[in-house]
Specification:
Low-confidence stretches: 167-187
CATH architecture: 3-Layer(aba) Sandwich
Largest sheet: 8 strands, mixed
Domain NAD(P)-binding: 10-130
Number of helices: 8
Membrane topology: Peripheral membrane protein
Structural class: alpha/beta
Shape: globular
Family: Belongs to the FMP52 family.
Number of domains: 1
Strand content: 15-25%
Organism: Rhizoctonia solani
Subcellular location: Mitochondrion outer membrane
CATH class: Alpha Beta
Length: 246
């Protein structure tokens, strides 16, 4: 299919910046939106044609649904997220990680029933709405919230540790974990993925949709529950497999 439009929410993150470059380089997309609290610096897009890029700095506390829906986005990609340390508190973390994400997806959802939209969300390995851990519980609850919005197709990526991530803060524990998972990645594909590979997989999944995913991805399905429709999940190993399909 050609002539599609894509909206990316969260382009300044470790994975999002790679997703934006992939979207801009892909001829399948004739229009690409980048909505977020801030825009990715021009230097990050050096060498990429940005003529089809539409940028908008938004206030997630006061979303103007009209301007979001006017875009009639065919595929909505969400890579927005944070950490408790960055947010400053558990409450602030959940507001950004869950409330902002769900509200943005809702704002981008078309009111035209004939417009089939696909939603692709970067979640996390271990996402579980019943988890006792804040991070994985928030991701699980966010997935459930997104699944209740009525998109024609919803795909959630659940990767492991992200290799090659550019961070604006020092994370010693993450550095140590990255070293360990880097070693383990030589014997298993379930623990780590490079952000560039993950970005390619995310864009590809949006283009193919659940029905078009190759068998090598071994996509899972989260069951429908509590007002949320069933949706597709892609594990770390599945994301690696999909990145090799391009």
């Amino acid at each position: 299919m050609s002539g599609q439009t894509a909206l990316l929410i969260g382009a300044t993150g470790a994975t999002g910046r790679h997703v934006l470059r992939e979207l801009l380089k892909d001829p399948q997309f004739t229009r690409v939106g980048e909505f977020g609290r801030r825009s990715l610096p021009e230097s990050e897009l050096h060498g990429v044609d940005t003529s089809k890029l539409q940028r908008k700095v938004v206030d997630f506390e006061k979303l103007d649904e009209k301007e979001w829906k006017e875009g009639r986005w065919d595929i909505v990609y969400i890579t927005l997220g944070t950490t408790r340390n960055q947010a400053g508190s558990a409450e602030a973390f959940e507001k950004i990680d869950r409330e902002y994400v769900i509200n943005a997806a809702k704002a981008a959802k078309s009111t035209d029933p004939s417009h089939h939209q696909r939603l692709v969300y970067l979640s996390s390995g271990g996402a579980n709405a019943s988890s006792s851990f804040l991070y994985t519980r928030s991701k699980g609850l966010t997935e459930r919230g997104l699944a209740s919005l009525g998109y024609s197709d919803f795909i959630a990526f659940q990767p492991g540790v992200l290799a090659g991530a550019q961070r604006g803060e020092s994370r010693m524990a993450e550095t140590v974990a990255g070293w360990v998972t880097g070693v383990l990645s030589h014997v298993t594909s379930s623990v780590q993925i490079h952000v560039a590979d993950l970005a390619r997989s995310i864009v590809t999944a949006g283009k193919l949709g659940t029905a078009g995913l190759p068998k090598s991805v071994s996509a899972g399905q989260a069951p429908a529950q509590e007002g949320a429709s069933a949706y597709t999940t892609i594990s770390n190993a599945g994301a690696i497999a999909l990145s090799k399909e391009n």
